[in-house]
Amino acid sequence: MPIKSLELYLFERGLVGTYPIEALKNTTLGIDVNHYVSRLLTSKKEQFLDAIGGFPTSLNLYLESDLKIFKEYKVTPVFIFDGSLTANQLDAAGYFTATANEVAASSTTSDLSRNSSASSQASKTNKELMLFQRHKAWTQWSNLMTSNQNSYIDQPLQPQEPFRYNTIMESKRYQANLIDYFIEHDITYQVAPFTSWSQLSYLLSKGYIDAIYGPTDCLMLKNVDKFILGMEFPNKDFRFIDRSRVLKEFHLNHEEFIDIAMAVGNDLQPYTLPPLQIYPNSKVFEIALEMVLNTGTNFYAYQFSNQLDNGADNSSSNYVEKYHKGIASLRYMPVMHDNGRVEVYLAEADSIEQSLESRKSSLSSNSVSSSRSNSDSPIEKKMESLSVASESTTTTSATIGDSAKNMAIPNDIHDVITQKLPAEYYFYRSLGLATGNLFDAITTGVYPEEPPLDGGSSNSYRELISKSVEAFKNKEINLLTQPINRYFQMKQINLVKWFSPNNKTGLTNRISPSIFDRLNHLVVKTDLNENEFSISEFITILNNSKDISKDFISEDAIFSNSLPLEKKLTNSFDLLSTSLLRSLVQLEFFEYNFSQRILKPTKWGEVLLKFNDLSIDSKFHERLLVLLVFLKLDTLKLSEEIKPVVRSALSDHTLRSYPQESTYILLLTRLLTLYQVEQKPSNYHGPIDKKTLIFREHLDYVRDNLKNLFEATIISSLTSNEFDRLSLDNNDWKTSIVHKMPFKLALPNTIMAMMIQFFLQKYLHNGNAKNDALTLVATEFSTYKTIPDLGEQFENAVEYLTQCVNLVKELSSQRLMKNDEAALIAKAVEFTKNAILNDKKEI
C-alpha cells in the first residue's frame, strides 16, 4: 500500500517529472510487482474477477505489451514480489482473526450506509473495502435474480454491481501464475523475504539494478534519490519522483517526512492515526503536511499528549505502538543479501556512510588543489582546517561503517517484523518453490482460513476446512518444523477460521516418529536427467515397475552423509517424483509399511494409476487428481445440492420445466470448473453463477492444500540433504523444479462452465436449436472478441467430459462412487454430446 493520498498530491503540486523511456536504454530496472500490478489492473479493470475466480487473463496481455517495449529499449526488468508481512501489516490484514472482523463489518447494513462517507473510508483497510464491495455485489445479484424471476427464461442476467471497486488488487493471489509466466518468458524475478521495495533498495545499493519502479513508499528510503512511479508506454515516457525535490518543496527534512508518512498510513504502517482519521482519505497527506508546517505537530508526540482511550483498539498507546512498529520496520527491515542470507539492511547507515565517503573524497580533492596554490597564511590555515575535517570524516566514516556491519538490533525486533526462519527456507521462497503460507503460520502461530470468493457460507466448505486439519495441515507443519529449531517443534500453532475466530483448532507439530522419518525410505530414483516431470510420466514410471515395493523402497536413508553422492537424488525428475509419491502416501493413495517392505496402491491409488489407460489427456491429470482428493474427503457429492441452498443461475422456469436436465446441467458445470476455455486475454464482463463458483472454491481449496503438502514434502527432502542442491544454479531451480511443481497454479475460472450452462438452457427452451443457443452464448459472453471458434471450444469441452465419464466409471467399479451417481454423470455428458455434436452447423 503506498503512502495514503500522496501520489495525487504530488501530481497536484507538479512534483512528478516526465522523461522519455529511451533514457532507460541498456539499464536493469527493478520492478515492485504489487505496485506494477496495481497500475495495470485498476479499479475499472477485471471488476467481475472475484465472481468467476481464476487468473486475470488481461494481465497476460498487459505483460506481453510492456515486455515488448522493454525489449525494444534493451531494458532488463527484474520483478520483485512481496514476501511475509510485518506485525502492523498482519494486524491490518486481519490475519490473526482470519479477517473475521472485516467480514462482519462488510455484511452489516450500518456499514453499507457509512461507506458512502469519504472520511469513513480513511480508517478502513483495503481488505475491508474489498470484502464490503464483494458482499454488496452478491447481494445486488441475488436481488436482481429475485426481482426478475417471473420474466427471466433463458436470457442470462448481467450483474449490475462490480465485485471489486477502488481497491488495490493484491498480487499474492496470482503470484504462482505470474512466476510461471516469468519462467516461461525467461524473465528475472525474486520473492523478497518481506517488503519488495526494501529488497529493491538493497539491490540498487549493491548495483544489481540501475533504477526502481515502485510505490511512493520509496520516498522513505534515504538511499533512493529518484524512482519511477509509472510507465506511460503509449507515450513512450515514464513518470519519476526526485526525493530531494519533494522534501525541498514540502519544506521537510527526511525525519519529518517519515513522521507524516507513518501518521497518514503507508505499506509498513497501514493505519491512519489520530487526529487525521476524521479527514477524507484523498486529502489526508495534504492536511498532515499543513499541520506540520503551520503548527509544528509531531504525530508521535501528539499521541502522548492526547490520551484518548475509547477502548483497547482505539487507545492512544495502541496508536503509539503502531507508530513505533512502522518506524522500526523501516529501519530494521530484513532483506536477502547476495550471500543468500536474510539479514537486516540498514539503508540509512549505508546512505550516511556513502555520503561521508563522498565528502571525504571531496575534501581530499580540495586539499590537493590547495597545496598547489600560493602558500600564503590564509591558505595554510584553510589547509589545516581541511586536514582536520578529513581526519574527522575518516573517523566518523569508520564508525558508521562498523555500526553498519555490527548493527545493534533491538532484542524485540521479532515482535515488529517476525520470528526468523533458517536462511534455506527463505531461499526456497525467493525462487517461488514455497508460497510462504506455511512459513507465516510457523512464525506467527496462526494458520488463518479466510473466506473464499463466494463468502464461504456453505456447510460443505466449512466441513472441508475441518477435515483439512488431519488430511493436510498437521502433516505440513510437522514436515517443516521437524528439521529446524526445537522452539518451533514445540510452538503452539492454531487454525483460525473467519466464521468462528474464537473457536481455534490446535495443530499438531510433534508426531512420533515424524512424518519425514516415516517416509524417507520412499525414493523414486531413475537417474534420467532428460526426463521432464509430469504426473503422467510419474504414473508411467510406477506402472512400468514389476514390483513397486522393491523399486521404490530404499534400504538406506539417502539423507545420510555417509552415502556417496550418486546414491542421492541427482535430478529434478527424481526429486519431484519422490515428493509426489510421499505426498500420495500421506493422502492414503498408497499403503506403505517400511518394516514389512510393503508399498501398494489403495483403491484410490489404483484409479490414479489407470489415468493413462482411461485415455485421460495428460494436461488434465493434475486437475482430476484434485477432483479425486476432493471426492475422497467426502464433504459434497457431485450431484448433491449445496446447503444452505444457493439460487441457481438457471431460471425458475427452467428448473420447473426441465428438472432432469437441470440436474444434468448442475453436474456438467461442476466438472467443467476444472476446464479452462482457450481464450484471448480479456477483461471479463458477462453472466455470473454463484453456485458454480462455490463448487470451484471447494476444489481450489483442495488444490491449495495439496500444493502446501507437496511444498512441505519437497522442502523436508531438500533440507535433509537427500538432493544434490549444488548441482543446480538459480535458473535450473526455476525451470526444472519450480516450473514443474504440481498444484501451484490456481484452477480455471467458471467461464466455460457458464457458457455450457446457458447454452443448454437456451437449447432446451428453443426447440433444441443449436445455432440459436450458440448465438446467445456468443452475444452474452462476447466470444467474437476472445474465442474465435466457439463451436470447436465446445467440442473440446465435450471431449474432456467424456474423459471424466471414464474416470467416474472406474470410481464406480472400485465402489468409490455410487453407481447411480456415475450413471447420472454419464447421462449428463451424453445429453451434452447430443446438443453440441449432433448438429455440426455452427455460427
UniProtKB/TrEMBL annotation:
Keyword Repeat carried by entry: no
GO-annotated molecular function: mRNA 3'-UTR binding; nuclease activity
Any one GO BP annotation for this protein: DNA damage response
Pfam (any one): XPG_N
Transmembrane segments: none
Domain XPG N-terminal: 1-103
Biased composition (Low complexity): 361-377, 385-397
Ranges where the record places region Disordered: 357-397
Matches recorded under InterPro entries: MKT1_C, MKT1_H3TH, MKT1_N, PIN-like_dom_sf, XPG-I_dom, XPG/Rad2, XPG_DNA_repair_N
CC annotations in GO: cytosol; nuclear periphery; P-body; ribosome
Keywords: Translation regulation
Record has Phosphoprotein as a keyword: no
Gene3D superfamilies linked to this entry: 5'-nuclease
Ranges where the XPG-I domain occurs: 183-252
SUPFAM superfamilies cross-referenced by the UniProt entry: PIN domain-like
Family: Belongs to the XPG/RAD2 endonuclease family.
PANTHER family: FLAP ENDONUCLEASE FAMILY MEMBER (PTHR11081), POST-TRANSCRIPTIONAL REGULATOR MKT1 (PTHR11081:SF32)
UniProt-recorded name of the protein: XPG N-terminal domain-containing protein
Organism, as annotated: Kazachstania africana (strain ATCC 22294 / BCRC 22015 / CBS 2517 / CECT 1963 / NBRC 1671 / NRRL Y-8276) (Yeast)
The gene coding this protein: KAFR0J01810
